[in-house]
Amino acid sequence: MHTIDWVNGKLNKKEDGYYIDNTWILWDWEEDVITKGIKKLCKKYKFKSVLELGFGVGWTSTEFQKQGIERHVILEPNKESYNKALKWNKNYNAEIINKFSWEYKSKEKFDLIYDDIVYVGGQINYDKHKNFIKSFKNQSYVKCTVNITNNTINNNLITTDKVI
Fold first, then answer.
1. CA-based nearest residue to 82, from 68, 103, 67
2. Cα separation, 74 vs 158, whole angstroms
3. Residues 6+ positions from 22 with CB-CB distance below 8 Å
């Protein structure tokens, strides 16, 4: 999928999960696993600030808010998910920004950079995203990955300098 198609793509619910046009973003069964993973991370590390990459349908964002995050910035490039995030935020206190990760410029230090994006636009955008992550020197980073074989989540905390 091209970058512009992702930005303008329609967020839709299908029988097995959520999609931007025909590109999968979340399986239905992931909600419980993902929110438990966020709860576990927050209880262990006591994060105060989070830069969250991707809003999707708001599962992780809601759990971060429930865990008492004080500073919560969410980057969401898809217009429909972004608008959904703005509506969601009427009940919460996050900063919602309609950009891809590599378009976001900040000198702010976050306790956690939580990466739950679907890569679009090929190797060029993947490399731009990876370089964006590395620009946050030695900050805590999690790339959320879900194991569909046993319905578990991998939220291994590393530092941004270890992103490959």
1. 103
2. 20
3. none
Task: Please report the domains of the chain, with CATH numbers, ordered by start residue.
Answer: 29-162 (3.40.50.150)
Quickly count: other Cβ atoms within 10 Å of residue 10's Cβ.
11
Are the C-beta atoms of 51 and 114 separated by less than 8 Å? Answer: yes
Distance between CA atoms of 133 and 119, rounded to whole angstroms? 14
- Structure tokens belonging to residue 78: 């898809």
For residue 14, what are its two tokens?
């299908």
Q: What type of residue sits at position 77?
A: P
Task: Compute the distance between CA of residue 18 and CA of residue 93 in angstroms, rounded to an integer.
Answer: 25
How does pLDDT run across 108-147, given as a tens digit for each residue?
899 999 887 776 777 888 888 888 888 877 778 777 655 4
The two three-digit tokens of residue 109, written as one number: 């230090």
